Structures are given as C-alpha cells and as structure tokens.
Fold this sequence. Notes:
- The protein is an alpha/beta fold.
- It has helices at 62-74, 98-112, 124-135, 152-157, 163-172, 190-196, 226-234, 255-278; strands at 22-25, 31-37, 48-52, 78-81, 117-122, 140-146, 174-177, 186-189, 212-217, 240-245.
- It has an 8-stranded mixed beta sheet with strand order 1-2-4-3-5-6-9-10, sandwiched between helices. It has a two-stranded antiparallel sheet with strand order 7-8.
- Strand 7 and strand 8 (186-189) form a beta hairpin.
- It is globular, with a radius of gyration of 18 Å.
Amino acid sequence: MTEANPSRIAGEPTQRSESGIAQLQIDHGFFLAYRRRRASGEGAKRPGIVFLGGFRSDMTGAKASALDQFCHARGLGFLRFDYSGHGASSGEFRDGTISRWFADSLAAFDRLTEGPQILVGSSMGGWIMLLLALARPERIQGLVGLAPAPDFTEDLIWRTLPDAAREKLLREGKLEQPSDYSAEPTVITRALIEDGRKHLLLGDAIPIPVPVRLLHGLSDPDVPHTVSLRLQQRLATEDVVVHLIKDGDHRLSRPQDLARLCTVVEELIQLSAASNALSPVR
C-alpha cells in the first residue's frame, strides 16, 4: 500500500459558511467541503465519528445525516466531507483516483479531528476506511463498513468488463457506463483502474486490530455480500461481526437500516469506553 503524498496537505480551513459547510484548503487551490460537529459534555470523553462516503456520493446523504443526528444527541464529535470531485468540493470527478481520495481523507482526518475516532465507510468509503485505519492505527477505535467495497476497481469493474470494453478503456483512457443512481453516466478512467492496484487489500491479511462491524444487504446489486465475508476473513482482528440484511440493497438508507447503523456505532462506542476503563493508568 502506498501512503498518500503528505505534500498535498496545505493551508488552513476557511470560515464556515451560512449553510454550515466549510472548506479545507489543500493543494493548488483545491478545497474539500466538510461539515464538522465538535464534541461537548460527556461526548468529549468518547471517540469521534468520521463518515467516509461512496463513489460519486456526497455528505448530504441519509446515512451521513442520520449519524449527524446520532452524534448531536450524544455530544459526540462528527466529521463528514466530500472527496475532491464529489459534492461541494472542488475538482473534477474524472480526475479522481483511490490515491487522490485517500489523500483527501488523510488531510481531513489529520486536520479536522482530534483524539480517538471510529470510522464509518460506505461502499468505496469502506475501502478508504481500511486504508485510513492502516495509516493512522494509533487513533482508530473501531470500524463500521456499509456494503464495503475494497478492491472494487479491480474485482467489480476491471474483471467484469468484456474484452472490447477493456480494450477501449486502455486505448481511449476512459469508459462511460450507465448509472442506476444518476442520469449522468459514470466515467471510469484508466488512471482509476491502474491506481487502484496500488491499494488492493483482499489478497493478504489486513493488520487492523480494532473491532469491526460490517453491514451488507443480500439484495445488493452493486457489491456482492461475499465481499464483506471475504473482508472478515482477511482482517487480523478477531472481533469482526458481519450483519447480513436479507432485503437490504446497496444504499442501506431505509429507516431500519439507519437504525441498525446507529446501533452498531453505539456498540463500538461502548466497547471503546470499556476498553479504556480497563487500561492501566499511566
């Protein structure tokens, strides 16, 4: 795994706008849009929550909003942001790669959070979540994956493309595919595929020791639930629980799905509190 280039991180966050969206300045005049809720009261003694969104998604979705309400009710710190080329952040989506979005996530994590954190990753965000946990192990208390999609550029895109589509992608550098979630086609670039190979995780053991909870719908048309089962086997931690939801789709954004998400996040918060209580005083 190649860690993101720290030279991309520069400048300070700008002032928050009336909409509640602030901007984190990164390199070459680019910025990441984000919303941050600071911890308060008893919540300041608990890990914060960081939400990592999916491919072509943004921080305004149902899962991020549900977690924001959850954290507000408990005084927990919460961070959500848009990768470059996504949502309200600057940049073009077609210029993005896993390395780029991982670097975005490191910048946001390092500069907008403090202390221990629980990462919640949705779809592609589940891949970014794992990379971030490997890069900052001392600050991660737990992981929650929602239809996590590590290695999707290779396993779910490249390996499923017909030969003619592969040849076109290599020849022209991009390929447009229809999307079930947008009227605009999804642009898959050669750079996305080739860069993704630098960050593949499922072929080896993944040295993450913290508790992990994975939620995956059996009716997910985009990321097979077998990805979560394979991920469970690769993780070094023994504390991995996979919740398979019989009628769950890829979004996992129904009220019952959001309630289940908040339940598993609460579980990891309680596990963190219990672990810290048992730790010897230094």
